[in-house]
């Protein structure tokens, strides 16, 4: 594993390199796409990116949890959480890449 985290700046640079738009326009496009994804999720709409995956919001109800240090039971308040489910195509590509790495070792 390379250990490098992909950032917004990296995405903007990739748009600049591959599409040829100026850097500031590339960064603006990345920001607009990310803002649209967030706005859709805020409205409660799922986001599906073909061959990549789906983002959605899941409501979690109130439940009883346990403090791992003390073992004391504590209530966990209801909340909404972001969920991501990778597409089968993405899973297959990642697994194939991992298989090739293991074979090369």
TrEMBL record:
Alphabetized SMART domains for the sequence: BHL (SM00411)
Database matches in Pfam families: Bac_DNA_binding (PF00216)
Gene Ontology process terms (BP): DNA recombination; positive regulation of metabolic process; regulation of DNA-templated transcription; regulation of translation
GO molecular function, one term: DNA binding
Keywords: DNA recombination, DNA-binding, Transcription, Transcription regulation, Translation regulation
GO cellular component, one term: cytosol
Top-level taxonomic group: Bacteria
Keyword hit for Hydrolase: no
Subunit structure: Heterodimer of an alpha and a beta chain.
Family named by the database record: Belongs to the bacterial histone-like protein family.
PANTHER family, per the entry: DNA-BINDING PROTEIN HU (PTHR33175), INTEGRATION HOST FACTOR SUBUNIT ALPHA (PTHR33175:SF2)
Summary of the function given for this chain in its UniProt record: This protein is one of the two subunits of integration host factor, a specific DNA-binding protein that functions in genetic recombination as well as in transcriptional and translational control.
Entry protein name: Integration host factor subunit alpha
Organism: Methyloceanibacter marginalis
Taxonomic lineage from the root: Bacteria, Pseudomonadati, Pseudomonadota, Alphaproteobacteria, Hyphomicrobiales
């Amino acid at each position: 594993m390379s250990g490098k985290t992909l950032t917004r700046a990296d995405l903007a640079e990739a748009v600049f390199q591959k599409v040829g738009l100026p850097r500031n326009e590339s960064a603006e496009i990345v920001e607009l796409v990310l803002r649209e994804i967030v706005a859709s999720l805020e409205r409660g709409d799922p986001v599906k990116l073909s061959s990549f995956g789906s983002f959605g919001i899941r409501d979690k109800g109130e439940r009883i949890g346990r403090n791992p240090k003390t073992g004391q039971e504590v209530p966990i308040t209801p909340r909404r959480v972001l969920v991501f489910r990778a597409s089968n195509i993405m899973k297959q590509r990642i697994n194939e890449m991992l298989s090739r790495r293991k074979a090369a070792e």
